């Protein structure tokens, strides 16, 4: 029995067959058990010898099965590892990459440009107090110029900021009356404007603020000239037109020469050769004072750029809603990465 069992175990090639052998040789209906039955006809001495021999045989068969089991399991694992071998030199499947939103592209470009000129990037809350959005910007309650920015109020003193100018106040107050300050503040802004091709109730602005001693309008003009050329091409010119903002004095609207027709006149510039891109001016001394700066010592300039406007001009987009409809056919045209 032993010889036969050991030979079969040796030749066995699967764990299932091995288990069948175990059940057969060591189970109740196997040849070992049958042999044990013959013990009842033996005398005591024979029985003792037979018992010892059969136990030994059982042990040997059990051990052989155990050894074979380990060997078969190892072989099975090796076969599995070999078949699942990963070739790390194969090129991977390309993952589809998204593209930056055109407003992010413009925001990044503006940030890069001003960081290169030594500005820092400041941020402020989108849910703002009336105090910062209006009062510190020289727009006290009841001031008629508040109507220029129709406002989403949350309660009497809290609102969705209508412009990024309140970040100016945060930056000045944080500086505790000591210049210089050179910051840009890009971010979302909200107004109760009816949505149309050029207006959205939520849009983006980028504020700029410089405070130092001996700052003049020439610094403002030079800075905006660099901005216009870098954003719209070296041939761009700018012109300043007198305007009014309560927080700047004097105030200007800034136009750039139309990059579409090189200033000759086309529908984009309404045949004037110029396109308005931002509002700016010298920081009103009252604003400096309210925000803790001595206007006898410090001056500053500020500007506010509408980012949708810049993106629309740069990419020839004629409907502001395109930025917010999340149509991938539109969005994938810009700033594709990868
Ligand atoms: C302001 O908001 C001033 N705070 C800008 C400023 C800052 C002036 C610092 C002087 C010094 P204005 O209301 O003109 O100004 O808005 C600035 C720009 O935001 C506009 O030129 C326009 O491009 C954009 N804008 C305004 N309202 C909307 C709107 N509803 N949808 C899209 N863009 C808008």
Explain this structure to me?
It is a single chain. The mean pLDDT is 91. The longest helix has 40 residues, at 44-83. It is rod-shaped, with a radius of gyration of 42 Å. The strands form two sheets. A seven-stranded mixed sheet has the order 1-5-6-10-9-8-7, sandwiched between helices. Strands 2-4-3 form a three-stranded antiparallel sheet. It is of the alpha+beta class. The protein has eleven helices and ten strands. A hairpin with a 2-residue loop joins β3 and β4 (158-160). Bound molecules: adenosine-5'-[phenylalaninyl-phosphate]. Adenosine-5'-[phenylalaninyl-phosphate] binds next to β6, β9, β10 and α10.
Please give the radius of gyration in angstroms: 42 Å
Put simply, the count of helices is: 11
The ordered H/E elements are HHHHHEEHEEHEEHEEEHEHH
Main beta sheet strand tally, sense and closure: 7 strands, mixed
**What structural class do the secondary elements suggest?**
alpha+beta
Distinct small molecules: adenosine-5'-[phenylalaninyl-phosphate]
Distance between the termini: 71 Å
Strand order of the largest sheet: 1-5-6-10-9-8-7
Q: Compute the number of strand runs.
A: 10
Helicity level, as a percent range?
Answer: 25-40%
Estimate the global geometry from the Cα principal axes.
Answer: rod-shaped
Overall mean pLDDT stands at: 91
């Amino acid at each position: 029995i032993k010889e036969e069992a050991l030979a079969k175990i040796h030749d066995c090639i699967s764990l299932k067959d091995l288990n069948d052998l175990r059940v057969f040789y060591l189970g109740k209906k196997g040849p070992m058990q049958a042999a044990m039955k013959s013990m009842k006809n033996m005398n005591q001495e024979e029985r003792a010898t037979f018992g010892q021999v059969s136990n030994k045989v059982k042990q040997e068969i059990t051990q052989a099965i155990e050894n074979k089991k380990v060997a078969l399991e190892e072989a099975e694992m090796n076969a599995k590892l070999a078949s699942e071998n990963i070739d790390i030199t194969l090129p991977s499947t390309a993952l589809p990459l998204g593209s930056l939103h055109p407003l992010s592209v413009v925001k990044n470009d503006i940030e890069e440009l001003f960081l290169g000129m030594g500005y820092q990037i400041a941020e402020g809350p989108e849910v703002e107090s009336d105090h910062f959005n209006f009062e510190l910007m020289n727009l006290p309650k009841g001031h008629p110029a508040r109507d220029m920015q129709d406002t989403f109020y949350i309660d009497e003193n809290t609102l969705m900021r209508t412009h990024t100018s309140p970040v100016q106040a945060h930056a000045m107050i944080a500086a505790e009356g000591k210049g210089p300050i050179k910051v840009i503040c890009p971010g979302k802004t909200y107004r109760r404007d009816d949505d149309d091709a050029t207006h959205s109730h939520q849009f983006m602005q980028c504020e700029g603020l410089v405070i130092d001693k001996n700052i003049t309008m020439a610094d403002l003009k030079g800075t905006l000239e660099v901005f216009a050329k870098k954003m719209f091409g070296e041939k761009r010119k700018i012109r300043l037109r007198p305007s009014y903002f309560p927080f700047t004095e004097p105030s200007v609207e800034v136009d750039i020469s139309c990059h579409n027709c090189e200033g000759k006149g086309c529908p984009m510039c309404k045949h004037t050769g110029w396109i308005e891109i931002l509002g700016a001016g010298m920081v009103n001394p009252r604003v400096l004072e309210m925000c803790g700066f001595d206007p006898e010592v410090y001056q500053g300039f500020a500007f506010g750029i509408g980012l949708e406007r810049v993106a629309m001009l740069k990419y020839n987009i004629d409907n502001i809603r395109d930025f917010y409809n999340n149509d991938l056919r539109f969005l994938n045209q810009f700033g594709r990465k990868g």
